Amino acid sequence: MKSTNINIDFYMPVRIISGEGCIAANQCLFGIGKKALIVTGAHSAKKSGALGDVTSALDSLGIGYSVFDRIMENPLVSVCYEGGAAAREFGADFVIGIGGGSAMDAAKAVAAFASNPNLPPEGIFDPELTPSLPLILIPTTAGTGSEANMISVLTLDGKDAKKSFKSDYSYPKYAFVDPVYTYSLSYDYTISTALDAFCHCIESYLSPKSSEITRVLATDGARDIWKVLSEISPETPISEEQRRLLAYASCRGGIAINGTGTGFPHPLGYNLTMYHGIPHGKACAAFTGEYLYYNMKSNDGRQLITRFADLIGASPELIAENLPGWAGIKLKLSSDEIDLFIRQVGGASNYKNSPYIINEIEMREIYSKLFS
């Protein structure tokens, strides 16, 4: 009998600790060095309570720390470079990233710059780097899943473009996923980050690199996100249980894309973020309908999409309608702007990462259909 070829390839070296109060219950795990640089944005780490929990853990262990809180949305390579210099000046021997995807992605770059003192800013994308400083990551949003993978998406200075930095040295040693840190998020921000996590799940599921393991993670995560997005509204507070489902689903999506990468909604969406300030999750979700439409042209894509929808309790048509609907983007693009956008992201590797590979003519058609 011919055996079935099942792919269960998988690699994810991060130790994830989850649950309410998980930092206080496991503070001994912060004892991986004598001095830590804490990388955050200006507000979210404090507002969520995560920064206070981390500093309490460090104080109890007698570990020194300095806070680098200059990380903004879409973190610039230059700011991460400055963070690396700050880590060296302080004598940090490990890095703690607290916040959403921007802060955690930046922390990965800071840890790399800190251990590569002769590296110029643009050198962060060099595959031959000295091992980064050890990392601990704590998410305060339920979106990117950056705590569970090696991916760091950075903004190139002066270019209105993003580029991914990936290194086996950028996996955090520990990730603490406490849903409580997401309780202070607004409804609109919660929607955007949840859409980002859902896009990770569906784009991972359709990837040719996907395995049985990543597909289980992707559908489990997407099912919970779909359930919550279908239930909540601006008029009703988001419950603690719904916050918990989103936090853990986001983490599962982050694990899934670590093995697969993402599809074309991500590079096409980057332009909406960089040029029009559309939040990343909403920008990606705006393209989900077209992503399904084009991939349904492939037999493999049609089968995968149908199966994915069935497993999360939806239909391809409903996903294609609701994801862009929840994003709610109202935007008009000129022909010249569309040309610019395609030049910016036309060479991204994401296009090959799905059953159907769109070309630049189809990219133009997608932008024009959605935003003209």
List the helices and strands and how they pair.
Elements (H helix, E strand, L loop, with lengths): L14 E4 L3 H4 L9 E5 L4 H5 L1 H12 L2 E5 L8 H14 L3 E6 L1 H15 L19 E5 L11 E6 L4 E6 L7 E4 L9 H20 L5 H20 L8 H21 L4 H12 L3 H6 L2 H8 L3 H14 L3 H12 L7 H11 L14 H12 L1
Parallel strand pairs: 1-8, 2-3, 2-4, 4-5, 5-8
Antiparallel strand pairs: 6-7
Helix pairs in contact: 4-5, 6-7, 6-8, 7-8, 9-14, 11-13, 14-15
Task: Describe, in plain words, how this protein is organized in 3D.
The protein has 372 residues and is an alpha/beta fold. It is 50% helix and 11% strand. A 6-stranded parallel sheet has the order 1-8-5-4-2-3, with helices on both faces. Helix 7 runs antiparallel to helix 8 and helix 11 runs antiparallel to helix 13 (316-327). The longest helix has 21 residues, at 240-260. The mean pLDDT is 96.
Summary keywords:
372 residues; alpha/beta; Rossmann fold; Dehydroquinate synthase-like, alpha domain; 6-stranded parallel sheet; 8 strands
Overall CATH class of the largest domain: Mainly Alpha
Second-tier CATH architecture of the largest domain:
Up-down Bundle
Instruction: Provide mean pLDDT, rounded.
Output: 96
> What percentage of residues falls in helices of 4 or more residues?
40-55%
Tertiary shape: globular
Radius of gyration: 20 Å
Strand content: 5-15%
Major sheet: arrangement of strands: 1-8-5-4-2-3
Report the CATH topology name of the largest domain.
Dehydroquinate synthase-like, alpha domain
Order of helices and strands: EHEHHEHEHEEEEHHHHHHHHHH
Number of strands: 8
Number of helices: 15
Biggest sheet statistics: 6 strands, parallel
- Sequence stretches where pLDDT stays below 50 over 5 or more residues: none
Structural class: alpha/beta
